[in-house]
Protein 1
Amino acid sequence: MSNQDEILEEITSKEYEYGFVTEIDSDKAPKGLNEDIIKLISSKKNEPEWLLEYRLKAFAHWKTMEEPREWAQLNYAEIDFQDVHYYAAPQPKKKVDSLDEVDPTLLEMYNKLGISVDEQKRLQGIAVDIVMDSVSVATTFKEKLGELGIIFCSFGEAVQEHPELIKKYMGSVVPYTDNFYAALNAAVFTDGSFCYIPKGVRCPMELSTYFRINEANTGQFERTLVVADKGSYCSYLEGCTAPMRDENQLHAAVVELITMDDAEIKYSTIQNWYPGDKNGKGGIYNFVTKRGLCGGNNSKISWTQVETGSAVTWKYPSCILKGDNSIGEFYSVAVTNNMQQADTGTKMLHIGKNTRSTIISKGISAGKSQNSYRGLVKVNKTATNARNFSQCDSLLLGDKCGAHTFPYIEASNTTAKIEHEATTSKIGEDQIFYCNQRGIDTEKAISLIVNGYAKDVLNKLPMEFAVEAQKLLAISLEGSVG
Amino acid sequence: MANTIEPKKQFLSNLSPNKKGDTVNWNNVDFPTSKTEKWKYTRVGKLTKNAFDNTLSENITKEFVTEHTKGYSQYITFDNGKFQSALSSFKRDAIQVVSTTANLELTPAMTSEEKDIFSTVNEAFSTDGLQVNIAKNKEIKSPVLILNIISANNAAAILQNNINVGQGSSVNFAFKTLNTNNSDNGHFNVVNLFNVGENAQLNSFNLQTPNTSSSIIETTQVNLERSSTYSSYYYSTDGSLIRNNITAKINGEGAEANLYGLTLAKDKAHIDHSTLIDHRVPNCESNEMYKTVVDDKSVGVFNGKVFVRPDAQKTNAFQSSQAIVLNDDANVYAKPELEIYADDVKCSHGSTTGQLDEEAKFYLKSRGIGEDAANKMLIKAFAAEIMENIKPQVIVDQFEAQIEKYFQ
């Protein structure tokens, strides 16, 4: 089986493809974090007074908090929160009305990333909001969506144009007191996306945000807020990349989803931040708080994520199942390679009656990486007939990596039914042998098996994303997939 | 730090130290808080407000001992932490009872990282202990019973049991932890250090039935050598707090660790099983099966970790925790963990939480079996998977008697 080992070796030593830097002038705030910086960010964004107050309150609270270190299965260098630019915007920053006016270097960058904004606009009909460093640079299809009453714009614009909605919903799912990074984000967030789907509207196209960190020494702190009013539906995609740099960069985002009665949000993420080099130098620290509130009855939130990037991932997209009969779903493929570390999973909080949740998590570890699933399923006293099914599988490629599972299961209702199962294994030699026998070489066999292993999750991605996800898996595991 | 020293002072104030007691450094250990990940679901605040006494005089009766040693040919009795020679009966060649104040030591010593505050309390305040050295190729079929009794209010029974099983030997030990009538608010603190030699086998059966105001903290460390087997079977009920920490270190190839636990909790009982199976070498196996039933306002916790080190290839580890919640005020917490650093392993865990099967209940009722009887039958069936692994009849009988008692 030495051939197999070689291929695994090759797979696990592939370099990052999106590591280029785009030469765009940028407007940066000085390094450091203090009230003046927050005021600067707020004034640059021309924000109303209440938002600045909110930021300052969050900052004051953040100062009282300690970085969470103890429980996560992660090991990373101390972060100097004063050594980061909390604001960087691509220059020249002027109001962009249509894509034709966007800086051509930017468009070129997106072409390089494989997301041709133009093409998507014409062929696939995806509305894209692009956030580079800290600022939203382009939003497509706004008018067409506007006809249906859908609001889809950058967070900054939303603050200006729909302050009442922002004021009502921002921080309602992830308050700034929630955790260390949520507090930091609330204090210094610079932009992000906002989306509101009115009553009874089924969003006709996929909405998408693309995040890109370009500048050195910056952190990216964006907020996404998606509100689905009664009976509405939308599917939201999120993708991210960053250049290769030797130092670690911080990404601390907050995503809040709210569904009212009978509404549904499907939120898909392809996370491909720069994972650092083979020796673990550089890479993004990805500390993200994502949470959805199924506030209304019969509502549904579904998280799908493909995690391939970041040096350190700390991320638990969660669902608060408050409305009766609401449904939460979490589908995840997390791939770690080289020196990457991931501690990711979900939380399903059952509060309403007849709430249901499904968790499918597939971890793939290679190289010297550590991949952990950490998930909470909590059934409150009030959650009569709650139902949960969790499945967490780990696949180990190589003998120097680790795969860990930390489920937390808390039940306080007699009618709750909770099932959890997890397995850890490597690719079976018999499976590879079976493929070899039928003329499928070892590399293809591994590809086949990994693909099949992740299929449960990949199938949940929207078509447009599934292709990209498969490509990403292929890159992370060197051409063996897809 | 002041607020962490205070409860320690309070908790230790009425305990009198043994020989090692003065050498212990209390600065390194603290009571777990809600932030301590290993104790996430178990609060010790209430426990630490007590000041237990480990010097109380012993006052159990012969009748009490006779009643509780029925079926055992060898038994060793401890009352309020002190050995009762007249109320014990065992072959003294293999088994010694040592006063900790003399020379009993933690062998092998726990590392300072492994020691927590409760094992440190044990080190400093244990009164008596058991030193068992089983020679090569011996067999003890009928379990030797260690009876650990509290017979006074506010008493602490702090014991340490060292059992070394020689190469090729196969032995059975039973442990009973209980109170006499009129002995409220007792505290049992037990440290078990078991070494299972090559090809040897150790089965331990633990019947934890303290009264509802008493607490048990038990720390067990097992070292398994090549091709050895350790199996433990716990029955736990009642108790204001029961916490069992089991660490099984698999040091030799071909060794096997089996941990079984049956918890039937009601009233305000809080029962927590915390296990760690440390797979250090290749080709070993571990099985864990914990079953929990909670009623009234009781809490059942299972926190198990399978730890597979990079060298421990070909490990087979299986972990299962199942729970039934009978009351909306009762809580079940499960945290079955896998931490795996080797790739050629088969590790899995399964965890379920639910209620008694309505259809099964309906089936029984439609055949004229009453609600209570049906419940009992189904819970017995739930427990059966553990019961069927227990070999000695005397243990089976006692486990069954306890299950019966749960429904009274």
Note: Residues 2-92+125-476 of chain A form one domain.
Protein 2
Amino acid sequence: MRDILAYDFLARALAASLLAGALCPAAGVYLVLRRLAFLADALAHVSLAGSGLGLVLGLPPSPCTFSFVLLGALVVERLRAAGRVFGEAALVLVMSTSLALALVLFGLVRGAGQELGSYLFGSLLTVAPGDLKAMLAAATLVAAFLLFFAKELYFISFDEECARAAGLPVGRLNAAFMLAVALAVFVAMKVIGALLVSALMVVPVLTAQLLAGSFRQLFWLSLALGVAVSGGGLVLSCYLGTAPGGTIVLVAAAAFVLAQAGTAGARALRGFGQGAAPRGARRAI
Amino acid sequence: MRGTVWVAALFLAAVLLLAFASGCRAQKPAPAGEKLVVAATVFPLYDFARQVGGEHVEVIGLLPPGVEAHHWEPGPQDALNLRRARVFIYNGAGMEPWAEKYAGNLAAGGAVVVEASRGLDLLPVGEGEDGDHAHPGSFDPHAWLDPVLACEMVRRVAEALAAADPERAAAYRQRAADYTAQLEQLDREFRERSRKFARREFVTSHAAFGYLARRYGLRQLSLAGVYAEGEPDPVTFRRLVDFCRREGIKYVFYEPGAGSRMAEALAREVGARTLVLHPLETLTPQEMARGETYLSLMRQNMANLSLALEE
């Protein structure tokens, strides 16, 4: 661990992966509950197109990517809220269109093949001090929103109609939530790449779901798991010489398998010992 | 009934295919005074054909300015251009895997086909190069970056032009001799400059400079492999950081284009600066517009290497 922090680039990589590890599952909890897990994937591809546009126009990639993702989030929310397209089909529309746009844009620039790879799979080793500051700012915004509106978001996630009837500004909250997800995607892009962003948003939440007994537990456990797997994955990749993004997701998947096996085993044991009806581990959801 | 339709369709397709193939074979001899059409792949071969052919040839550079050479393949328009060419020059050694397919067809159609790197003393890939994975049985294709090997390539280009256009053979050979004299001058300059280098190791983003390094007794360390693929893993990157710190490396080389991110990250980590080292596979549109040549870019490479390695 000490010899990791002796390198500035690894220290920054670690900071970035911890940020993404905390932020992604925090937003991901609501995505999973609302059956919008695919949304992160779609927005990641939108940001890919944004990066491509930045490259072609010679603009700084971060602001370009960022504004594109925000735009994509609003488009998706509009399509979803208008109800003229099924939520999931709207995501496919946005995702494939922006992936196609990204392919065309990256094809226009020399050396972009290599760049495209770093956007698809993340580029943890090249996190610059400026990148880290932008990521920190985005993360602070998202965290503030998620914590401040936790109750409202929770309500909407379980029953949007009821929340509306209760007088919550559901439309505005949904739009703001989409923007928060977009920001989280923006942070995670650098860490884990467009293709794997959704894994970091969803897999820790699924794991926590097996263990948590309440929504509050689910939220904080997801967050803790996200931090643990992304920090652990990066450290592991430093010793194994594997791709950091892939290693992080594999560690997250391994945690899920362990939790699944562990809870199943515990339930079997309890059922065997007491002869009682198994208590549903997923009772909370 | 359906069966007969299928048989008829197949028959028709076969007839069309035959007609098309024989159409491709019919090669018109160029009328006197008309330019010899030459198609070349990577930029150095394009430039060599231009220098040797002079006003007698029309050279088609197949790789458009600004593309990533290792991942390019010809589209329909390029295939039409290729059919027009009476000389086709490609590098070989794995630089243009698609070219071998075209080479056979073009040669059968009467064009003169040159594989410029064939039989040269090629470097196997992955032999003692840091940051590189072993590709057994494959070679580093960037042979043109060694001016001595470039001379041999120029001679081959001249012979090909002479074979396709025997009337002007003497002119091509003369121009090739003049041009190789300039390449030999470049080699002498490199030799002299490299004698003054205080260090032998240089760090690049893309491992394209093995031949240059071998010729002048230098050593190349690189972030990505010979085919410019992917990003290094943390272990490889850390090894390069350690190396740069130990050796006090002041400059990290990258190639023009968009892929300089890793070089910048390495330079930032070790407090070095970045400099261009041009692999010459393709030029950017700006470089084309500036009228850069093999010689001008190699001299620029020499100047930047001197900057990094002297002192």
Note: The two ends of chain B are 85 Å apart (CA to CA).
Protein 3
Amino acid sequence: MTTSTPTSPRALAWARRRQSFARSWAAYRAQRTGMIGLVLLGAIVILAICTPVIIDESALSVTQATGGRMAPPSAEFPLGTDEVGRSILALTLWGSRLSLLIGLTATVVAIVIGTAVGVTSGHVGGWYGWFALRISDWFMVLPSLVVAIALLAVLGRSMGTTILVIALVSWSGTTRLVRAQTLTVQNRPYLERARALGAGHWHQMTKHILPNVLPLVLASATLLVPSAILMESSLAWLGLGDPNVVSWGSILNRASDNGAVSAHAWWYLLPPGLAILLVVLAFMMCGRALEAVFNPRLRGEPA
Amino acid sequence: MDKVLTARDLRVEFGLPGGRTARAVDGVDLDVAPGEIVALAGESGCGKTTLARTLLGLERATGGEVAFGGTPLGRSTKALKAFRRHVQLVLQDPSGALNPRHTVYDAVAEGLRIHGITDDEPGRVADALARAGLRPPERFFLAYPHELSGGQRQRVVIAGALVLEPSILVADEPVASLDASVRGEILSLLLRLKEDAGLGALVITHDLGLAWSIADRIAIMYLGRIVEQGPVEQVLTDPQHPYTRALVSVLPDSPVAEPIVLAGELPDASKIPGGCRFRPRCQEVASGSALAVLGQCEGEDPVLGSGAHAVACHLVHARMAA
């Protein structure tokens, strides 16, 4: 019950939304790993955004490289240099931009496809629902890396195709999750009430089903980002990345192509590898915490 | 006759696995006019809820028709939408009937938004809440369902129906999930809406006492068919159909002297007995007092007679003819 006298219902509805956001935030804050992940993630994102300010893009140029060939860490190059004398630190920091960008964009695309297919297949059902489910099953059982390699080979190597391919191989899990939640919400009496009020499918899906599905989608999206980043790194490491840009995977690809392992050039392999590990870890921590906030069953509370 | 909700020979069948068909509603005639409350009573599983859902157009009739104001209920989305401004639903469990993520304001305004009624939305919502007995309405605008009591939630559901200014409410067990102390309030709300606003209501219940206290007319349903229908005082003080007599006999202060316990279970709706569907459980058949009409009971489906107090029973028909 509210105590204040309302000015406009819409403004006050926003006030209530802020309140419920504050409640979720408090539940999230109570989870230590989630907070560690969030701080870590914040630091990485800020670093990635600020990289052009810290290090000039010319540091990535092969022709303007100043360092020695695979030189170990020194005062001038804190993380050593690669086979043409570029700073590994500069490469890793610039690589973070691309890895995060591809990871996030691919996740957004995958989530949009997955949610749309999941909600419609669960709500509409029938022939369409069966068909959509079979398609998503098909994508789920295909070995994603193999499909991604095949698609990239056909579509050509560029950032856009990489994003598209990663999204294509990872939307089906979200579809499953969203469909299951849709079917649960579908049978709630308030949907019956909405139908009796005269609501069409669009109203039911956008006003009732989607708001009940979105929190879970958000949590699963956070868990999808690290796998998208890993997939991008794997593809780039296999030499299927965009050749014109630097990502963590492509650094590792160059390192192994140029014999960094036999040269014992650990400074060439470890920074991008650890960066991938850190980002994946940070996203996982945030995702798990979000899942616990939005799925009360994981918190051990009645829903 | 202009705003009467009518069902004529309404049938709803469901296909079951194995090619069987369940006849949930099997030839029902029913009228609900504005300004009257009709109670629909019967055991669980007799098809009451299916009948209500069909009357609202939520379930597709396989035979017969539902009409409002003489116009048969169309199948198109547009026709159904127009129909739903006139006939509204109140569900049994108010906790489930409200989306937990919507405020009271959003829940009540939902109908207006669906029907594109945009003028004076806050005023209409406040008015509906006030008519449903939530006063002052502004205090409830931003409450979430979980912050309200069961009775208040049911009032919100009723307000959500009233906001469209319907002429008929279909209420499926409107108080079954509420505390005894709140039941009276919700029932008197329905009575007040009938008297003040001329609202008609079809109240589905298994509780004859409840029907007695609020309804003008009552229809007793058995296995998908109405077996007795009439003014509530007549039907409950002078029950004619053996099934109604059995239901009434177990009430306190019953006009039927001996409590009658029916034999057996309610048959499956996919195996409706031939002849009179109540015959296998009928106490008159079992005691032998229906011997004279037994042939008819076994062979013919009794017809619900016309008239204010109508009964679908061969024995009653024979007695009346005699």
Note: The domain at 29-57+85-299 of chain A is CATH 1.10.3720.10 (MetI-like fold).
Protein 4
Amino acid sequence: MKISINWIKEFVDLDGIEPDELVKRFNLSTAEIEGVEYKGKDTYKVVFGKILEVKNHPESQKLHILKVDVKSEVLQIVCGAPNVREGMVTCVATVGGAVQGHKIGQAKLAGVESNGMCCSAFELGIGADDEGIMDITEDVPLGEDIKTYLPVDDVILEIDNKTLTNRPDLWGHYGLAREFAVIFDRQLKPLETVDLAKFDGLKKLHIKNNAKNCYRYGAISVDNVTVKKSPMWMAVRLYYAGMRDINLLADITNYIMLELGQPMHAFDHNVVEGIEVIEAKEGDKLLTLEGEEHEIPEGSVVIADNNLVPVAIAGIKGGLKASIADATTNVLFESATFDAVSVRKTSRGIGLVTDASQRYEKSLDPELVPVALGRILEVLKNIDKNIVVSSAFTDEYTKKYDKSVITITEDFIASRIGERVPKDRIVSLLKALGFAVETKGEEIIATVPSYRATKDVSMKEDLVEEIARMYGYDNITPKPLAFEPVPTPLNKAIREEYEVKKMLASKFDAVEIHSYIWNYQDFNDAHYIKTEPVVRLQDSSNAGQSGIRSELVPTMLKVVSENRNMLSDIRVFEVGRVAPRLDENNLVDEEKRLAVVFASQTQTKEELFEQMKKFIVDYAKQDLAIDITLKQGDKPNFMHPYNTFRITSREGDYGYVGVVHPKTATAIDKRLNIVAMEINFGMLSSKEGYFKKAKVPSKFQSVDLDVSILAPISMTYGELEQVLNKYRSKIMSGYEYVGTYTSEALGDKKSVTISYELSGKDHTLEGKEIDEFLNGLIAHLVKNKLEIRK
Amino acid sequence: MKEKILQLIKDFEQRKATVSTKEEVEALRLDFIGKKGLITLLMQDFRNVPAEEKREIGMLINEAKQNVESSVAELKEKIEEEELNKKLESEPRIDCTLPVKTGTGALSPRTILQKQIVDMFVSMGFTIEDGNEIETEYNNFDAVNVPASHPARDMQDTFWLDNGEVLKTQTSAAQNRILRTHGPKCRVLFPGRCFRNESLDATHENTFFQIEGVVVDENVSVANLIYFMKEMLKGVFKKDVNVRLRPGFFPFTEPSFELDATCPLCAGKGCGACSHTGWMELCPCGMIHPNVLREAGIDPDKYNGFAFGLGFDRLVMIKTGLDDIRHLNGGNVKLLKQYGTKI
């Protein structure tokens, strides 16, 4: 929203305060000012002049040679504007002057001397019209600097609308002036208005309110409006505030809106005799001034004429039918309050956000309704002396807000701000902000002004804010919090997350990724990845990305695909959240997962798989004291049907690890070997670590005994391990897998070498003890149809 | 006899100076104290020495012998040392300038910075919590004082899911659960990923990370909040920062503030990053709205507190110098590889 300091100064004396200071203090006490524009700064020596003569330029079809009277002299000016005519009064930038930074000097245009420049409103920066030079109909003194007559010099503040969301009172200059008055401890001037009671004797208008979302509908009619065009000063103000002038009656409603924050509407009273406020029926439509037809959502508040034909969408937009035309002389002014939510819904429903709807959405004060009408009459009569008010103020006030009274004490404010503000200061600040304040002993009883009572201020905490911001946040001394020493170790699940990430990055050369939460359907389809989201985005603009991922590996494979031409080895991981299923209440049962993908052009699947297995087994064992077992089981369609395994332990099943299905891997890049894993990390990391029972090693020297066992090729190590685990001996402290050997000579057998560590608890082992162990082992193996390789 | 001995000692010293190889040392030893060495021979003559000279000559011979022994040992050692040195000199040398292969894995800069912040908050007595990314409408909006009709629901363009839940639009979505679990006296920090349905550019992402904190206790004041924020930002930027509060508007807090800190890039002088104001908007915060406390079962007449949200991705951009936030959400492995593994 753009704010004119000139306009503010009409209501509060801000003399002696620099614009920088205004901005700074407003920022700290009220709302954010995003920008400051110094209007008119680079425009000077522009005067009013009258064109006495227009001659064609001998060398140019477009240019004319003018004689312009600027009182002190008659200037010859060459001008290219199409609208020049003799007798026209316009703005003339004289030699030595400047127009928005563009310096004016003596010049020759197509060989003819030119001493100045006739300007359009756009060139001067005071209007949008750039079709021709200004055509002034007002009676202006020739030769006078336009700045003495027009508010060209101004400081425009751009306020961030978002920070005014809860302040309906700040959507107009008068309310902002009130803030400035409090901030700088100046007096707010009363608003000059016409007293509506004067017209009580006149006939009332036909106004009916049949819509519950219309809180108040006020109207008054005016006849004999003869002025059609807004005065130049008003046009400049509207332009500086971001609007443009259309005609006096339309402009003046905008002007009052910008001044008071109360949107208004002007209907041609000859077209609209009376008003019926109704709720839209299905199929109701409105053709706007711009020629757009809008379908009005059913139930929206609609302003209709006596015949129930819609003439405006309440609080949003007026229709073409009853709009102000050149011929309009009799007007009906509307000043009304509509329900904020209802206006917002309708506005969003038809996709039309207007200056009016933005204000209504903030919950406007119904008490503003007569104020705005009184003000519009005041402004109008100063512009057009001939107007005649032709009706009484007609007011349908159906929903009033309750009066809001809040009681606080100096102590309460001190405890909440952390700084003692004396009672007198509290009272004076609240009064300046418009609160009615009474004191009773310690109590400060504040009645909220109507313009703050619609939703903004309703409780004690709101007054804390009012007092603190006006007292000045920068005047509050920071104070430490009382500290109670309570042990707060880092949450286990979060600590594990950091640890597993660190391990993957530092020991396994993997890079951490944050991928998006949605699936990429096109990528999945193109790479034979079937993954079914259980939940989807509503109204997604991109249907291919509407599914919320139910697993992580597919998005990681997409990362591999995106990097395959940049790197020959891609090792990535992500700890991320997925939506794997809905619970009985149809809510997402979210899981925190860990996914790892290793892809390589140089390493084999087996090597990659071994590294990944090492990671998960090592991490689980060393960090969490969990023994991992890999088993056959369920796997996603994009994983290898045989070389993918469930990751399990006694505690449960965490996920899978394995080789990516060759179909998918080839589709990504046929050069790449890819392995992947995904686990429920929340489940794995929740296990509390503990100290394992450690064995104190024997003091006596141990003996390593390597044994090669002949086993059928089809026998897995796990199966062999089961056999080995059944052989027990007092002198065996453990065994380790060394390697597997196959050869043609061995036929359908393989040789698996195991290294046993043997030691005596209280003595050094003797040869015969070792022989006994070995013989026992051989017998055990034979019993299990295995043998030792000699 | 005496003269012979003295002459032998002289001879030995002369020979000693000429010796340079192990073999020559051995020859020298043999010549003087070998079985047929000069000193050995002299010693064999010792019995012929008159009794009155025996003592003196005996001492002299022994001394001479010991001198030869120790000199030979010394020479041997010295020559061995020299030989070893020669050998080492000619051995192949290690090129210490050859590069080694360092790790190629890396953590996201977000993880690195988040851990630093988390550690700092743990040291200030905060519990760290984790939150869901998919939240109920209640947790995301109603529980934090954003009723259905509230314009704030428009302010945040929400990703709605077809089961009626939302991708959480702010970390505050976890407030209700956290306040319920931790009760009225608590300090909790909860980092999380949030989502907004908005168009993307260098500084706006539809997916971004925030870090939110709450402190609830008895008699918590705005002055406490300012103190705390200052200390926290000092910790984050590892230097003293000035902060200022401005009024803000968030439904979850009353009063609400925007917290600006001295621009960490230009130290308040004004630069492009802070729009030449010297201040950077870093941290929306405020005193927790009584409705939020009430909704979490905490009596707002007895307890109050403050909440703050750190625009975490912005901090990451400042710390890393990245100018486009989208780099952190894609899988640009070559870029992300560079951040190392330090946490």
Note: Residues 308 and 318 of chain B are 19 Å apart (CA to CA).
